[in-house]
Amino acid sequence: MSKKKIGRKAITQPVKHNIAKITEPIKAAKVHFDFSDNRWLCSVRKGEYTNFLKDAEQCLKTHYNLFYTIIPKVLDEWDRIKTGFGTRQYPHCHKIEGKQRELVLEVYKELYNYELGEEVSLYQLSFTGANRLIVIYGAAKETIKPIFIDHHHQIYPSIKHNQKDLSSYNYCIVCSHK
Ligand SMILES: [Zn+2]
């Protein structure tokens, strides 16, 4: 039996974390995430649409962006984001409407086996990186419920960034750990 290796080399020194010190009192977040349904982490294929990943490494990168950047930034800057949807400061944070909404509804139905109603407000949230978090936003209770991750920004594709052939991608973080 070979020894279990951690990463590529043995760790001899503790990693120095480059984390800023807190200088202000911690503010209460103005919006809340509802993670009660864990199916939002799963990958799905519907027609041309897919959010399956290439492999575990790509998966790690995209989830790092999600949990290290997107979610904390949404919580921290929500007041500014919700008054600046789609502006230059927040170009990837906005409501999903029209044919993009239709696509999200189809993907949702495939993943959850349930149809969302007309009253539901759908939004995408992202800053840097290729992935977009697709959510239901309930303004009355200031709640954000993630419904799936658009890992390859296929809901709003761009010619510049959507050149890869995704048909061979088949990695799902949920199914690969079941
Ligand atoms: Zn899955």
Give a concise summary.
24% of the residues lie in helices and 15% in strands. With 178 residues, the protein is of the alpha+beta class. It has a domain of 119 residues.
Structural summary, described in words:
- With 178 residues, the protein is of the alpha+beta class.
- It has a domain at 32-150.
- The protein has helices at 56-83, 98-112, and strands at 32-33, 45-46, 49-50, 94-95, 122-125, 132-138, 143-150.
- The strands form two sheets. It has a five-stranded mixed β-sheet with strand order 1-7-6-5-4, with helices on both faces. It has a two-stranded antiparallel ribbon with strand order 2-3.
- A hairpin with a 4-residue loop joins β6 and β7 (143-150).
- The two termini are 25 Å apart.
- Bound molecules: zinc ion.
- Residues 42-43, 172, 174-175 line the site of zinc ion (ZN).
Strand content: 15-25%
Helix content: 10-25%
Secondary-structure class: alpha+beta
Largest sheet, strands/sense/barrel: 5 strands, mixed
Q: Pick out the low-confidence regions.
A: none
For the secondary structure, the number of strands is 7
Please write the string of helix (H) and strand (E) elements: EEEHEHEEE
How would you state the average pLDDT, rounded?
89
Ions, cofactors and other bound molecules: zinc ion
Integer-rounded radius of gyration: 18 Å
Distance between the termini: 25 Å
Spatial arrangement of strands, main beta sheet = 1-7-6-5-4
Shape by Cα distribution: globular
Query: How many alpha or pi helices?
Result: 2
